[in-house]
Each structure stands twice: as structure tokens, then as C-alpha cells.
Amino acid sequence: MENLPINQMNNREVLLEGRNVKKYFPIKEGLLSRNQKFVKAVDDVSLKIYKGETFSLVGESGSGKSTLGRVLLRLYDLTSGSISFDGVDITSIKPKKMRNIRKEMQVIYQDPFSSLNPRMKISDIIGEPLEINKIAEGVEKHNRIVELMELVGLDPTRMNHYPHEFSGGQRQRIGIARAIALNPKFILADEAVSALDVSVQAQVVNLLKDLQQKLGLTYLFIAHGLNIVRHISDRVGVMYLGNLVEVGEVEELYKRPAHPYTSALISTNPTPNPRSTKEKVILKGEIPSPSNPPSGCRFHTRCPFATDRCKNETPELVALSNSRSVACHYPLV
Ligand SMILES: Nc1ncnc2c1ncn2[C@@H]1O[C@H](COP(=O)(O)OP(=O)(O)OP(=O)(O)O)[C@@H](O)[C@H]1O
Ligand code: SF4
Ligand SMILES: [Mg+2]
């Protein structure tokens, strides 16, 4: 779906929805410790991803993006909250049923080969999901691998080569071919282009956009900064210390950020918007520990606009307009 305004999106079908999702990791402590402490990696996040859109999550390292992505795909159990995918509640779904749904939700990682045998040929890497799920074998499998390689812009005559014989961008294309092999509805791309050179990044982003149109895919795209996701996203969610602090259409959010943290993320972009008239928020210091987050607004220790109210009162994520939500007592717009 091409940058549809959110008020029109409200009529669209939701593909993936998380409600009040929490994911806490227990911290290992000494046997004598009485109070179990937790890393609150995702702390009460609700969001909807619509069919055919690209929703991106951005935020500094440790803000909980990957954990949220993994929980939404049920690769992790939830601490609390609920998740539905294509109208099915998958919060506590049985593993056998989840295996079927899993085919429709695929993941592309930054380094798609870290978990694969480097001695596997490309044809085996791309064909493995077809084999495991008994989708195709023999000539049919071979033809499907050729089709998938062509779809992602790889030369099928190289199907008997090994991963190390391909460039970083080509390897990412192999990862994409594998991810679309089972005709999924949804793809989580976690830092899928972050390690690539800028020009290669653009090519892979264009490929993903192209495949979205052709195959009707919905994406959850994860990156640190807004710059990478700007050209692929319809909407963006900004995460800080386990919370969603702003959600909106990408261009609107980029041009007129409402949350001081979003503004700070844009200021740290290599090419900030020169027409932005707002005072720039510069991020100082490290992100605090998610095991002991600051009181009130979690951003108050680094926010130049913080008041006593911010230290004591937690701002809820509320609608600013029908295309934007923000969790700040004093939004910038
Ligand atoms: N399996 C785990 N066990 C314990 N703590 C974890 C686990 N996975 C993540 N965390 C912690 O949860 C917090 C959020 O991590 P997460 O990887 O989700 O952040 P992120 O936003 O994806 O960061 P990055 O941009 O570096 O990938 C971090 O403090 C991290 O150390
Ligand atoms: S609530 Fe206060 S501390 Fe938090 S972002 Fe808004 S102004 Fe800054
Ligand atoms: Mg991550």
C-alpha cells in the first residue's frame, strides 16, 4: 500500500495487533537474592499493523525493538498482553497450530547466514523451507528456486554456489528469497539493510518495495534511525526504553516530530531536514537501564524540556490527530 493516510487506514484490515504487550527478562542473581529483578525490554506496548503497509520501529540500541518484533511473531513468549495475527489470537496458541501460522510470518535478519551452514549451496538455502514444509521436491522445487532467485534479482545459474561467493547485498537477496519461499503474508526485517553500504541499502530497500507490490506483503521494518526507514515506511513507531513514544506517518513524523526523542533521533541523522524550523533536540548521555527505568516519563533524564510533572507522571500514548499518537506532556506540535 502506497503511503495511504492513516484516516483512510482506519478502514483497512489489521494484519497484526499487539495489545498491552510486555516482555520482561529475569536477571540472574545470587541464590540468596529475594527480589527477582527484570529487564523490562518491552513494557506495555499496543500497536496495529495494517495489511499491505510497512510499519517501522526505530530507536536507540536497547530500546526493545527486536524483542517487540520477536514477541509479535511469537518467537518469544509474552510476559503479559495479547497478540492476534490475521484475525487469530496467537497469544497462547498450541505449537502445532503456530507452526502453520509461522509459514505466513517470516524474518530477515542483518546477517542471514550466521545460523546457516556455510557449506550449504544457495539452492539448498533457498529450497530448505520448501523441503521442510513438504511444499515441493525434484523438478518442481528446482523451478521454484529459479523463480525465487529471479524474483530477488539473482542469476539462477549461480544456484550451486556457496554464500561466501556472494557480496553482502547479494547475500541479503538470498535471505529474502528464502523468506518469501513459502508465500508469507508478513515479513519482519530486523536491521536487514543496516550493515550494507548506502547504495546497496537503497537497492535492497527498492527490492523489498517491489516485492511488496508484487506479492502483497506486509512489513515490520526495524532500524536505529529514521533515515534508513524513510523511503520504505508508511508509518513509524519510535521506541524508547521499552515504550512506544510516538507513532505516525513517516513524512509527517520526519518533518514535524511531536516527541522530543523523535526530534533527537532526526537531529542525529546524517542528513537532517534543512527546512525544519523546530529547535533541535540533541541526545545527551546513555540510554538508562531497562531494569530500573526512570520514574514518570522514562525520557525525562535526557529531555531538555523536562519538568517536575515529567518526573512524576507517566505520559500515555494518546492521539494528537487521526494520523499521530504521542506519549509526552508537552508535544512539540
Ligand atoms: N534474551 C534476552 N535475555 C535477557 N535480556 C535481553 C534478551 N534480549 C534482549 N534483552 C535486553 O532487552 C533490552 C532490549 O533489547 P533489544 O535487543 O530488544 O533492543 P533493540 O532495540 O533491538 O537494540 P539493538 O538496536 O541493539 O538491536 C536490552 O536491555 C537487552 O539487553
Ligand atoms: S513528558 Fe516531559 S520529559 Fe517526557 S518527553 Fe515530554 S517534555 Fe520530555
Ligand atoms: Mg535489535
> What is bound: which ligands?
adenosine-5'-triphosphate, iron/sulfur cluster, magnesium ion
Question: Can you identify the CATH class of the domain at 6-104 and 224-326?
Answer: Alpha Beta
CATH topology tier name of the domain at 6-104 and 224-326: Rossmann fold
Residue-averaged pLDDT, rounded? 90
User: What order do the SSEs take from the amino end to the carboxyl end, as H and E?
Assistant: HEEEHEEHEHHHEHEHEEHHHEE
- Per the principal axes of the C-alpha atoms, what is the gross shape? globular
Q: What's the architecture of the domain at 6-104 and 224-326, going by CATH?
A: 3-Layer(aba) Sandwich
Number of helices: 11
Total E-strand runs: 12
Poorly predicted ranges: 270-278
Distance between the termini: 27 Å
**Main beta sheet strand tally, sense and closure:** 8 strands, mixed
Radius of gyration: 21 Å
Sheet-strand content, in percent, reads 15-25%
Superfamily at the CATH H level of the domain at 6-104 and 224-326?
P-loop containing nucleotide triphosphate hydrolases
Helix content: 25-40%
In which order are the strands of the major sheet placed?
Answer: 6-7-8-3-9-10-12-11
The SS-based structural class is: alpha/beta
